[in-house]
Amino acid sequence: MNPMVEFCISNLANGSQEAFDILEQDPNLDVLEYGCLSHCSLCSETLLAIVNGDVVEGDSPEDLVKKIYAYIEENPLF
């Protein structure tokens, strides 16, 4: 079972697309996009992804990728 990283399509348009593209290349992650993740106020203010059910935020696409990998390392599935 791979870690799941979910993105809101609105957040992708607001700047997280680059992070999505980077993470999508990792065969050890399941990277998905949805119309909405129900975090609209946060989504409009920052770059974010839902990683295994928890919100991870970043200041830039590169920062978001770094924080997603750090979250996965600190919170293993098994």
From TrEMBL:
Pfam families: DUF1450 (PF07293). Signal peptide: none annotated. Belongs to the UPF0349 family. This is UPF0349 protein FG382_17260. It comes from Psychrobacillus lasiicapitis.
